[in-house]
Amino acid sequence: MTDTNSPRAPDGKKTGMPYNVTTFYDKKYLADDGRREGGMSSKILVIDDNPTNLKLVSKLLEFEGHKILRAVDAEEAQVVLADTLPELILMDVALPGMDGLTLARKLKADERTRHICIVALTAFAMKGDDQKAFDAGCDGYITKPIDTRKLPEQLAELLAKERGDKTPPDDRQDCRGSGAHLA
Questions:
Q1: pLDDT at residue number 6
Q2: Which fold would CATH assign to domain 31-164+173-178?
Q3: What's the Cα-to-Cα distance from 15 to each of 6, 10, 37, 166, rounded to whole Å?
């Protein structure tokens, strides 16, 4: 039986996403393989205990050409970070066990991980929640549900700022200045 409603990438393969990502971009900006041209590949750790959210964000960013590392909680994230350091962490705030803000504080206090740009991904959208994330050391704040059309561009802005900023981590302003208050 052929599934005619399954989303497909430009090469005809199923995208694994609940929609066809290619519809979000003007075709003139897409490379032959369907990914956006000119983008730089980054290593991004996505931390979310919701399997649907984890898969959605991971697939979207993989489609953009990024290498994605995954974790379902703070403890698993720390195991991943012991082996490899990403350029950016996209992290749910409400994680089981250690919450995302506690993990952000821990990572920013550690010399080895303090340079990593951390973006809080959260359903908390009350006044002041963004400031709590920034106070914990997060460099950006995105509320759920995420806008899948904007997320890759928002993260690209943060990554570009991080790549272009050569000042020592203790002396620089974080990547909030790049319009990363992505709520």
A1: 40
A2: Rossmann fold (3.40.50)
A3: 8, 9, 18, 37
